[in-house]
Fold these 3 entries.
Entry 1:
Amino acid sequence: MKPKFFAVPYVVWMAIFVIAPVLIVVFYAFTTADGGFTLTHFTEMSRFLPVFTRSFRLAFISTIISIAIGYPVAYILSREGQRVQRLMIMLIMLPMWMNFLLRTYAWMSILENTGLLNRFLAFLGLPQLQIINTPTAVVIGMVYNFLPFMILPIYSVIVKIDKSLYEAASDLGANTLGVFRKLVIPMSLPGVLSGIMMVFVPAVSTFVISQLLGGGMVMMLGDLIEMQFLGSTYNPQLGSAVALVMMVIVILFMYVMNRFGEGEEKAVGL
Amino acid sequence: MTKELIRLSDCKVAFDGDVVLDNINLYINDKEFLTLLGPSGCGKTTTLRIIGGFLKPDSGDVFFDGARINDVPPHKRLVNTIFQKYALFTHLNVFENVAFGLRVARPDDKKIDKHEISHRVIEMLEVVSLKGFEKRDVSSLSGGQQQRVAIARALVNKPKVLLLDEPLGALDMRLRKDMQNELKQIQQSTGITFVYVTHDQEEALAMSDTVVVMEGGVIQQIGTPEDIYNEPKNAFVADFIGESNIVDGIMRSDGVVEIFGRKFKCLDSGFEPMEPVDVVIRPEDIDIVSPGKGKLTGTITGITFRGVMYDIIVDFHGFKWLIQTTDLCQVGTEIGIQIDPDGIHIMKKSRFSGMYGDYSSYSAEYDDIGDAEHEYEPEDEDEA
């Protein structure tokens, strides 16, 4: 019975800061301003469909780009010596020690019309690029901010692959590409899955990045929800409904991913 | 039938300045069962890795069927390996583990069609008695079963040479004995050359056509199991293979050696007159007689019952000998001994002289060899 006692603070914490807020959100989503039951928030929501599709599309693109950059980095990293690995991991983590807003502001000053990038292009005599206030800028911001969360889980799975398995694979006739395709990729899938989760979920609900780099032109779900609570269109009931729908979609997504990854995770003994 | 298949010539390997292999020269015949035997750190696994292609010698050459293969990567060699801890692919089931080598492009031929892959895998699983285990997760198998998957995975590719790196090291005593017989049978029926690495001298003697004894990165002796046992080249080999009493002797003339001031007849010749030598006398070659009739007289200081015989420790002039006998003896009694000429083996002095063959610390030594027997646990039969 004793060990249960130690779980009490955790249970209390969960109840106050996780379960209660979710219940409040659910309550708001189904009520009018004066407290009556209603479903209008959900029926009205169809007008936000473009925001939903844009959010999921940009989050999807950012996740794909993060895999495309993160996987090779993680793989190459895992093949390096211990020292290089430690140093590189620290360099990857380093930007995260800086404030999230500061990092995003830094990208603003890089991507601005008169920013670092365009000044550099002008210096080279190349045409100017209009990136700021476009979905491209938002995607760049999201990839930059969330990339470490893709690299680290993939890296930690790949380094755990026993060196003798590489030897066994090449002993059985697999060349470098074969070893990668038949051994490294299947064995690192669980890392990719958790990387996707850790990039996609925050990317869907981001609002600071889209405001700063999208300049209000690229409205995403996070912005929409924020507006309902803090903005001019104050309507916490509608905001709650949007948040609830987004949460349900994300939970469904995570569930599917988990089912997909179950067989693989067992393989690596996670 | 003795066609040379693999040759290592003057192979040298050093890690960070530590010499691991010192000028190894070795050839391996086709269809041979060759064992690299030695204590840990003697260079036997390094030698195996050179043949497998996982390690390039710093200097020297490796030949396969007459062609130099120093720069041929592992996946292009007609060699497969059974790794020490099996190195099975945990993300694949038993069938896919065995099929791995057939699904990737082989060095000798093109793609193998699906039907043949499944035919060959099933056939191979039958050979290693794992039929019906195709869909099983490799991590759900016992050590012995994993071992069989590793064997099937290597043999299904029909290699010219199979390298085995202490493959039975993780198995318990009885299973090990069974697998020894099975491996030997597989080797004889397939005609594949086996290169086997072990530190277990009994295993080496029981299975091999040729035994290569290694120590300190140097080959100490190459020969048949009988040669190695009966005619060890130096004190290290004599001590490592079986039990040996190794004493200082002086060669008086061809066929006569002096031990503890007494002359013994022997069959060895070709030494300088009065040359100091190492004399090996196996414990089972010593006859116990009454004190007056023996060439040497000593006192029994210890007796251990071993089942088929007694191990007794006898003190001759402060030097303790191990004698194996079926006679019942008592501690403290005096005995004489006789040794037939063919029970005496003379070796040249080497850097190992004086390091081995004394049984003063006898019990400790026997414990090292015997403890594997305690690890035996009955196999779980109802797993399948």
Entry 2:
Amino acid sequence: MRIVQELLFVILFGTAVYLFSRKAGQIRKNILLGRDKDLNDHPDLRWKNLLLLAFGQQKMFRNPLVAVLHFFVYAGFLIINIEILEIILDGILGQHRLFVPVLGGLYPVLIGLFEILAVLVITGCAIFLVRRNILKLKRFISKDLDGWPRSDANYILITEIVLMLLFLTMNTADQALQARGAAHYIPTGNFWISGMLTPAFAGMSDGTIEIIERSCWWLHIAGVLAFLNYLPYSKHLHIILAFPNAYYASLEPKGEMENMPAVQHEVQLMLQPELAANAPASDTMPKFGAKDVTDLTWKNLLDAYSCTECGRCTAACPANITGKLLSPRKIMMDTRDRLEEVGRNIKANNGTFTDDNKTLLRNYITEEELRACTTCNACVQECPVSINPLDIILQLRRHLVMEESSAPAEWTGMFSNIENNMAPWKFSMDDRDKWATE
Amino acid sequence: MHIKTMAEYAANGETPEVLFWVGCAGSFDQRAQKITKAFATILDKVGISFAILGKEESCTGDPARRAGNEFIFQMMAQNNIQLLNMYGVKKIVTACPHCFNTLKNEYPALGGNYEVIHHTSFLQSLIDEGRIKMQEGGSFKGKKITYHDSCYLGRANNIYEAPRKVLETLDAELIEMKRCRSKGLCCGAGGAQMFKEEEKGTTRINFERGQEAVATGASVIAANCPFCMTMLTDGIKEAGKEENVKVLDIAELIEQSMK
């Protein structure tokens, strides 16, 4: 019997890890479809960002109450993983609470702490469900989330609550069985929360409680492994990708736009033709800006997978606040959806992309959205996981103007004014210093 | 006051302490010209030797770049850098946060390396050094002033305190809007929006910001950007408060209150 259970567990665990790694590999491949960009400079600053922004969740604390609740859920999930390690080892080795003899008196203290965290996770998730579904906060009822994204958010919160309840029920049954001296249930000492709940099992037989304990144990670990495999399909992937995304976050001032060396070079040759003689001839026409996800940088694509659709960006966006179509959150969700589509296309066509007559621009993101942006950086400032929606918007704008000459008439006028009069308005260059003589 | 150009300095074999980069708005926009004059007056009063590029100055390329036209940006930037490097310019001060951002953050990649200072930071250092002295009981003493963070000084370059420190010297009552500092709401002009109609929406961004500023009860809205100036002035007008509420640049506030 024991060997059957061990075998079953190893198969379950192995399958879960295999499926997750396969999907993770696919996501990695998709991200690397992006344009190359070297983001390995200043490792010291990058580690600092990782610690402050990802581990410390610094930006979440712009709203302290929500930050504390989120921190409980996060810490709960992170720290309870130590308990998961024991559960996995127990499952593989056919043991029960393997760490008891190793940790001795520390064991019930650790489990007690985990239980407190479990209660905090349940509380946090319950409040989050209320904020989404009963208080209906503006950023959660936005049409950005219609359909799957809204359900996704609720599934995550409900799953976390269920997993924590299973964990607490399992411990309570264990404590009850310990008190009765049941075989295999070695004494661990009192667990802080489940220790108080044992009266719930008062009238039940040892056999029933054992079935409850075993069922909870299996459901809990199976639930955790299923949740692990749900992550890559969900906005919840941020619990993993927030870390690399913080590490690779831009270290430049937010106001700085990425230079385009190809254009710089071309303009240089135009202004100083004498350089042209030594210039290496380029045989490929460079592409300007981004039309589809593969024109964006790999960091833009990592951003898309890191987005948990919280909507802080959109809530702070001046265009969105005043009723324009633009929503930075939607820009990120569109980028991820299109990237997944391109990834599936490549997979289905044996490794090469086959034109599907779709692009990120227009099929997902419209010109009207892009034209509403004031480049104010509020979305970049607000994002707790270091996503930069503005960078994507500006690359798409570059494509529109430089590849398609698509710009509002006023902008076309502004461009020619700058080109001819050195100012965005139609004033004579000779009047530039007129103010000084008045 | 005669304002000398870099060309005049160079002709005499001299170099000024600092180049005053006026920018297109500061040069051509009638309202922004007053900011330019106020700042030039301060520099003159304090006795700083400064020059402008005059007719040789061109747009930094900021609006073209943000609209997506990198070619025009590169043309402007490379011409400007050539000119600045020819004059051996080391230090630039400007009253426009967009020019400030482009000169400071985007020109180095193209070979233009200068110490670039926004006029609010420059004013703060002049006050700290005691070179600007304020009148006793200046005209803004006790008045309610609210400060509007421009995006390109604030979030883009993390400068939030210098303008506030300058305003403190006015002995006025500083009231913050709810959306201030890194949470400041844009005026609606950035990203080349200044040069086109807003997209379809429920209201205009400058109306939204104008109302928020008016709601503070302040009689002066302090700005640090010529584009915010235009936007906020219209926003106040829309709120029907142009009689009671004035939008003034920090340079104007100081120029009117210094000895």
Entry 3:
Amino acid sequence: MKKDTGGMYQKALAEYRLKIYFLAPTLLVLIVMNVFPLIWSLGLSFTNYSSLMSKRIAWVGFTNYSRILSDPFIWKYFQTTARFVIIAVGIEFLLGFGLALLLKEQFRGWGLVTTLILIPMMLSPVVVGLFWTFIMDANFGLLNFLLGLLGFKKILWLTNPHLALYSVAMVDIWMWTPFIMLISLTGLLAIPQSLYEAADIDMASWWFKFRKITLPLVSPLLVLAVLFRVIDAFKMFDLVFIMTGGGPGDVTETISMSLYRLAFNKFKTGESCAMAYIILILIIALSNLLIRWIHRTKTA
Amino acid sequence: MAEIVLENVVKNFGKVRALRGVTVEVKDGEFLVLLGPTGAGKTTTLRIVSGLEEPDEGKVYIDGQLMNGVAPRDRNCAFVFQNYILYPHMTVYDNLAFPLRSKLWRVEEDEIRRRIERVARVLKIEHLLRRKPDKLSGGEQQRVALGRAMVRNPRVFLMDEPLSNLDAKLREEMRVELKSLQKNLQATFFFVTHDHVEAMTLGDRVVVLNQGSVMQVGAPEVVYSRPANLFVARFVGTPEINLIPAEVMGETLRCKTMGTTWKLSEIPFFQEVRNIPSRVFMGIRPEDILLGQGDKFGEVYLVEDLGVDKVIRVKTDHTILRVRASQEAQFAVGERVPYLFRTEKLIFFDPVTEKLLG
């Protein structure tokens, strides 16, 4: 009897060890690549460290944080970012959900059309940024060429300060509308057809069915899709970096762009760490708000 | 209230012929039961009446109006689905209010509340109004589905096996309630089931459907005692009817497989009906065979005790007869027992056309 339990103990231990072996590589990578930098950068954000200079590192307390939070330019960049997020994600949501509603009905060539719509999402942002820069080029771009054919004036897509942010937003919309569409479509297709039949019997109009059945049942997924997009758009860097570099002037300077500049142009590493933390806290707060909202719609 | 007429309705799903020319009439205020095995086309028939499906051929009338091409929402039929299909994200109250709020003419919320309370009282679901469907038992969900059908005074109630998901006891209770509900509302009920007991107890008339064709239309007792063909005879009634091949030879009826004969003069049927083919199928219900009397003998093969009565299988030569006997009857397996056919209850079928003779 005693021997038996001993054997079982050994076996349990062996299984436990096996689990550890399987998990170890991932844990190691996570610790080295994520956890350590996270803690290290938190430490750096309280110092005047610069990765360019080899001067002594001094502890400066909350100086970095107070400098950033009192910098009027940073607030302007936050506003730019917010404008970008609202425009891009707002339109992506409307277009994506609209497309999903259209694609909910099966038709000939459905698979092909759906796949084609998904292509922009599968491209690398750098590639997208590069070829849209060409398309939007003021002189030899495809867009202006087409406008020229129709007899319109040339538009300075990326160099007009009133337009540049919208142009970048447009590319983001082109790229990420399929993502919202895909998630909405999944949600729509998960709604049982029988509910619509019951509603038909209950003499519901199309609009009533949409409002009372489609929207409430698909909304948790919609919120999730928007949440993903908001977080992602908030970090917008790659398209801006490639297409405008924050310009003209600083009209497309998003917060990530400005963070990049602080860290790798000005090499104020300590300050940039502080800024990264401020952005992190904002994103966490924003996602928490949205997640709480999902829970509220669920219980209501 | 309303009457429904289906005229020669044909419906195909791809290569599957679901309905092959169904003609049915549901009279105003009638409880009509559509009875048939799985795949007979019962649900399809109901869906065609409701407008959820369009017939390929044939016509659908409600109250004399042609309904082909009319959307479900313009037909004012209530439909109780087999699995109820309540709106999962709404409370019972909102489920019941749904048809009232969705109507083109707005019903005032006060009026909605009054109607829901009345229906909830009738169905005894007042205490459930604030709950969501997933917190309800099957029976409760069924009542809510019924309530959703009742709140808006539809022209007809279409019911697709609404009792099939309930346990036996609840099913019996709901059967009684449904019947009294229908009498109180004076409503037209078109009810689908595969359970012949349900059909017998509920229906003013029963339509038996098989493979997309109507087999028989009639009062429950007629369908039971005079089934139009072999299919209906077999499908209606448990234990199943006894069907025995027989031959008319001169003045006797010979059942080779039973190893026995009757004089034609003993059987009223042969006095009344002429032009009988020489080969027939003889049908007799299990309760029309009496054990312990008569001059013919068989051997007890199996005794099934059903509580209220017993089903005894009696072997006579190559045939095993199903006999219904009272609870008190004591028979041991292997025992030789005399049996008697109530010859006035015998029915006969043409083995070629499978139709009832006479």
